[in-house]
């Protein structure tokens, strides 16, 4: 090797050694993003598209979505990863998991990332009802994303057949049961179409909470350390639910599956159903008949708990990862994208500004049902959320199901649920 070759090789090696750190410095910050969906499909394609668009606009950050199963699967995976020291930087978890995540020291408050006037305006733009499960003791822990309320869907053709006005849903419990009686179809000893359907697996506590609000009681305090499962309004609510199946016989007796309720509606096995507004686009795309969407019927008052998921940022992520996660969550909840997400999924757009965008105005004008859940926020309360929320809601749900199957009387079931919740929550007071 002559001197020129040696010097050239030395120069090349020097250039590489100098360039390598520069390349490392320019590598994008990796942000893993756990999103709760069990299987591939339209929603995963939408999320993948958002991540790709953000990554293109923000080359210093790389968002990598990981589809992590149900909400229950996702919280379990996030907490396991947190304990092992390598949690996903960003995750969408039920807003009701807030106290659990705080108690596990798994997430950071969002407030520290809110620095500019534009950041502050964005934070103040969310619907107040959604912040009830996002804030506690002066701090914001979650960013509302795919949020919902419970709404009533009804089959307008079934209403016509039953002699009911297809444009007028039930406004009260009394009307709800009267309509359900007319809508229930019986052939011999069999029911071919139930009048109404309220699912009781997965989120039975959520559905009962709606009925309890309507009967005049809430099921827990805002601090997450006290429940009121045996209050008179909660007992009245569960008794009404049980009676529809066991006495009035306008609702399938026993347990009704959460996941099959929309399918039952499509197949005309039920004329009305109570479910999340997150099913709105699903119903719009799959119902082969005209349908309506309404606020839930009232007893003493109207009401629904809010529901759905928030963005959460991991405490054990690096500051750069946390900042990248915050930027993505803020980007995805801008009015135009929040409106687009609502149109694509049926979830409630999380800010008033989203409903003022041209796209959302046009959508609501062509499909007024899209505004029902938003309008119901005026009557909404926080979804049940406590310390050790999974244990508390399991005790509540198990006893609700015991009443629905007839193995316990509603009052006794709720007394048992309250005793168990009291035992779990007493140390937190």
Automatic annotation (TrEMBL):
Keywords annotated in UniProt: Periplasm, Signal
A GO CC term attached to the entry: periplasmic space
Source taxon at top rank: Bacteria
Transmembrane segments: none
Main subcellular localisation: periplasm
Location relative to the cell: Periplasm
Annotated Pfam families: SBP_bac_8
Signal peptide, first to last residue: 1-24
Coiled-coil ranges (or none): none
Similarity section: Belongs to the bacterial solute-binding protein 1 family.
Protein name in UniProt: sn-glycerol-3-phosphate-binding periplasmic protein UgpB
Species: Variibacter gotjawalensis
């Amino acid at each position: 090797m002559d001197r020129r070759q040696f010097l050239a090789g030395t120069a090349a090696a020097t250039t590489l050694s100098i360039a390598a750190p520069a390349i490392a410095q320019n590598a994008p910050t990796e942000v893993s993003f756990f999103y709760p969906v069990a299987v591939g499909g339209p929603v995963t394609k939408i999320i993948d598209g958002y991540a790709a668009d953000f990554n293109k606009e923000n080359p210093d950050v790389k968002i990598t979505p990981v589809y992590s199963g149900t909400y229950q699967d996702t919280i379990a995976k996030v907490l396991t990863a947190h304990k092992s020291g390598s949690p996903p930087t960003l995750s969408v978890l039920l807003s009701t998991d807030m106290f659990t995540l705080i108690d596990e020291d798994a997430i950071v408050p969002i407030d520290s990332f809110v620095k500019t006037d534009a950041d502050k305006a964005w934070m103040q733009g969310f619907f107040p009802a959604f912040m009830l499960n996002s804030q506690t003791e002066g701090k914001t822990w979650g960013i509302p994303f795919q949020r919902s309320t419970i709404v009533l869907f009804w089959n307008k053709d079934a209403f016509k057949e039953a002699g009911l006005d297809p444009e007028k849903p039930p406004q009260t419990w009394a009307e709800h049961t009267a309509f359900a009686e007319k809508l229930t179809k019986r052939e011999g000893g069999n029911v071919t179409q139930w009048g109404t359907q309220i699912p009781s697996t997965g989120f039975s506590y959520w559905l009962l909470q709606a009925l309890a609000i309507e009967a005049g009681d809430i099921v827990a305090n805002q601090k997450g350390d006290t429940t009121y499962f045996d209050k008179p309004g909660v007992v009245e609510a569960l008794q009404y639910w049980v009676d529809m199946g066991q006495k009035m016989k306008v609702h399938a007796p026993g347990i009704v599956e959460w996941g099959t309720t929309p399918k039952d509606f499509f197949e005309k096995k039920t004329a009305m159903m109570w479910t999340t507004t997150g099913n709105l686009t699903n119903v719009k795309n799959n119902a082969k008949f005209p349908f309506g969407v309404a606020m839930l019927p009232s007893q003493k008052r109207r009401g629904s708990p809010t529901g759905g998921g928030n963005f959460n940022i991991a405490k054990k992520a690096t500051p750069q990862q946390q900042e990248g996660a915050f930027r993505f969550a803020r980007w995805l909840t801008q009015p135009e994208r929040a409106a687009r997400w609502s149109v694509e999924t049926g979830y409630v757009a999380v800010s008033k500004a989203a409903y003022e965008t041209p796209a959302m105005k046009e959508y609501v004008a062509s499909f007024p049902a899209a505004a029902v859940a938003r309008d119901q926020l005026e009557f909404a309360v926080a979804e049940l959320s406590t310390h050790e929320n999974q244990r508390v809601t399991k005790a509540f749900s198990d006893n609700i199901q015991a009443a629905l199957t007839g193995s316990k009387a509603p009052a006794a079931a709720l007394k048992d649920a309250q005793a168990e919740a009291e035992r779990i929550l007493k140390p937190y007071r």
